[in-house]
What we know:
By secondary structure, this protein is of the alpha+beta class. It has a domain at 2-93: Alpha-Beta Plaits (2-Layer Sandwich), CATH 3.30.70.60. The chain is 21% helix and 34% strand. It has helices spanning 16-32, 69-81, and strands at residues 2-11, 36-52, 55-67, 85-93. Strands 2-3-1-4 form a 4-stranded antiparallel beta sheet, covered by helices on one side. A hairpin with a 2-residue loop joins strand 2 and strand 3. The chain starts with a strand and ends in a 52-residue tail after the last strand. The model has no long low-confidence stretch (mean pLDDT 85). InterPro entries: Ribosomal_bS6, Ribosomal_bS6_sf, Ribosomal_S6_plastid/chlpt, Transl_elong_EF1B/ribsomal_bS6. Residues 94-145 are annotated as: Disordered. This is Small ribosomal subunit protein bS6. One of its GO terms (cellular component) is cytosolic small ribosomal subunit. It holds the Pfam family Ribosomal_S6.
Amino acid sequence: MALYEHVFLARQDITPQQVDGLVEQYKGVIEANGGKVGRVENWGLKSLTYRIKKNRKAHYVLMDIDAPAPAVHEVERQMRINEDILRYMTIAVDKHEEGPSAMMQKRDRDDRPRGEGRGPRDDRGPRPDRGDRDDRPRRPREDRA
């Protein structure tokens, strides 16, 4: 049997319990077709980069699958039909990763010192004083003329 990583996005307006129900439903489909589901990670409700079917957020779920190709095709067919699934992607892998995925690893960006990897202008130093801003002449607004 082949190894796969399968990620799907569910609509934002379903509950986490319904997302778990979807996971159990697709687990059952894979097991009924002779496969096994290993790790299941629920990444939670995350913002989308762009709107998908009028949704700005989605529930993300990762599943590690060890199953024959027909089982994966059946899961994808059922996801295509289900209106709660916005997108899905299945990738064949050589082996499953051990431990949490990259999305589940906590990466704290603020624990780095100030000069490390913050951008191309890190060496600028402090900003100069701009002075009193009320001394600048103001343009009259056109609607007050």
